[in-house]
Amino acid sequence: MSVMTEFTIFVLAVFVGFEVISKVPTTLHTPLMSQTNAIHGIVMLGGLIVLGYAGDGLEYVIGTIAVAFGAINIVGGFLVTDRMLGMFAKKPKPKADAKDKGGAGK
Predict the structure, then answer these.
(1) End-to-end Cα separation, the chain, in angstroms
(2) Has residue 69 been placed in a domain?
């Protein structure tokens, strides 16, 4: 493929990805984040494979960048998912003191 064809595919993929993600309701955000973490795990695996078969410096750099970006996205995705799930957790009720119950404190 020519560079222009690859660039066109890249621009279209960015546009379609933005349009799809911007239409996602907030209730589906957490399940989608877990799926994205799985995808970034595949990116990391691909980067490790590239590093394993690397023959020159450029391949090492590309593999290292893929592994680093995949790791950053996985950790960030889990942090965002954890924070969003924490927003839906029930807050614990404060424990009442013995004085409030009318027991030994009177």
Answers:
(1) 86
(2) yes
Residue 44: predicted pLDDT: 84
The answer to whether the beta carbons of residues 34 and 43 sit under 8 Å apart is no
In a domain, 74, yes or no: yes
Q: Which residues of 59-74 are buried (b: 16+ CB within 10 A; e: fewer)?
A: eeeebeebbeebeebb
CA distance 75 to 48: 17
At 67, is the pLDDT very low, low, confident or very high (cuts 50, 70, 90)?
Answer: confident
Distance CA 11, CA 33 (A): 23
Long-range contacts of 51-56 (CB under 8 A, 24+ apart): none
- List alpha helices for the chain, DSSP H: 3-22, 29-52, 57-87
pLDDT in tens, 22-57: 777 777 766 776 677 777 788 788 888 888 888 888
Q: Is the pTM of this model over 0.85?
A: no
Q: Which domain holds residue 74?
A: 31-90
